[in-house]
Amino acid sequence: MLKDVMDAVAHALELYIDDFEMKIDNLPVVDENNILSQLEALQKELIKQEKKLPKLFDAWENGILTDDEFTRRKLVNKERIESIKKQMDHLKDSIPTKDEYEEKIMCLSDALKSLLDPTLDADIKNTYLKSIISSIEYSRDNNTEFILDVFLKD
């Protein structure tokens, strides 16, 4: 029974590795340097927009701007800042997660190798598995077969 459970865990790890490899293969091709330079430019624009707000208050307090003009300009400034932040978030989301996937594949592969290595102690195998698996749910539909659901840590 223990061998069957270990084989099922090993199979689940293999499936996760295959899944992450497929995700890497399907990542869109993007120029990370271009994205990073766009983010840098947006960061500069954000700082520039944020510096305008105190100047608006000064102009309003000194009577240069009317209440209506101040309110309008402040709203435009706030909308511009929000727009820049949204653009930055969108760009950050477009950076591929290839490194994260490769790291997960490496951790999963190490755990799988340890699990399959008959010379390693159970404590070592357990340590590897605990480093990547958040939980395993065991269920049984009948007396001869069981189901294991393996959940990875985020």
List the helices and strands and how they pair.
Layout: H1 2-25, H2 32-61, H3 67-94, H4 98-116, H5 122-132, E1 133-140, E2 146-152
Antiparallel strand pairs: 1-2
Helix pairs in contact: 1-4, 2-3, 4-5
What does it look like?
- With 154 residues, this protein is mainly alpha-helical.
- 73% of the residues lie in helices and 10% in strands.
- It is built from 5 helices and 2 strands, in the order αααααββ.
- It has helices at residues 2-25, 32-61, 67-94, 98-116, 122-132, and strands at residues 133-140, 146-152.
- A two-stranded antiparallel ribbon has the order 1-2.
- α1 packs antiparallel against α4 (98-116) and α4 (98-116) runs antiparallel to α5 (122-132).
- The longest helix has 30 residues, at 32-61.
- It is elongated and about 85 Å long.
- The mean pLDDT is 89.
Overall morphology: elongated
Rg (CA only)? 27 Å
- Helicity, as a percent range: over 70%
Structural class: mainly alpha
The averaged pLDDT comes out at: 89
User: How many distinct helices?
Assistant: 5
Low-confidence stretches: none
Straight-line distance between termini: 29 Å
Major sheet summary line: 2 strands, antiparallel
State which percent range the strand residues make up. Answer: 5-15%
* Succession of helices and strands: HHHHHEE
How many beta strands in the DSSP annotation?
2
The main sheet orders its strands as: 1-2
